[in-house]
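Phage holin family protein
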Amino acid sequence: MDGGAVVAQQNTKSAASKPSVIDVVKVLVRLGPKQINDEIALATAQMKAKGMAAAIAAALVVVGLVFLTFLTVALIVAAIAGLHAAGFQLWAAALIVAGGFLLIALVFALIGLAKFKRTQPLTPEDAIRGLRLDLGVAREGTDFDPKSLDRADEERRRAKAEAKRRSAEQKKTPGEGAPQKPSYTELLRRTALRRDHIAGLQDQLRTRFTRSNTVLDQPPQPQDSLPPEAPAPAPPVDGQDPADARGAKEFFAERWKPLAVAAGSAAAAGAFLRELTKK
């Protein structure tokens, strides 16, 4: 076999062994998800191992903090015992130690409060100002003046301070602002005035009803010397018995006074409610 034949045979074998593009894509499609799943499983196993280690570390830290608490209690007891041995009473020694802890707590609280006040307001002022500058440049271009933002902020602060001052003045000035709750003395005065007003209305109603009763109770004056003629009986209505009509008249004659008193009470109650709504 000559050399040309050998080279041709090798080229044929290499061409036959070289995969096509479709085969490569198939292999990638098959191996890609498997590789991703294995990576996820590896990450999960690693996180589980680290989580277990972190949990053990946290448990050890908690145990250490518990013993540190015991140490703190022991030091407190030792301080109290030392003061007691120095001549102080036991309760006095405990109060001295507690006062020291209170002083330390107040110092740290004041320092924290001062630092917190320095961080106010809790807004990214530089970022907000930069955004406003960007908007101004985008709107006006090179004609935009950054000092206009400072002037607008100053005017806003002045308006807020003026509104706060007006609100404080309205609270101080009586009769303005939110209505104030009446005092106990004011409530007593109001109820006494309303009570007197209701009593006056009741007296007026009683006087009017008394006058009406007097007019109705007076006998009719005779005309000349002739005896008064008896009124003709009213004709029965739809077969009504005259005795029933007389009974109804007698019933209303006996009951008109209680009915008048009830009407007067209702009028007084209405007047009372009207006065309450006016107050």
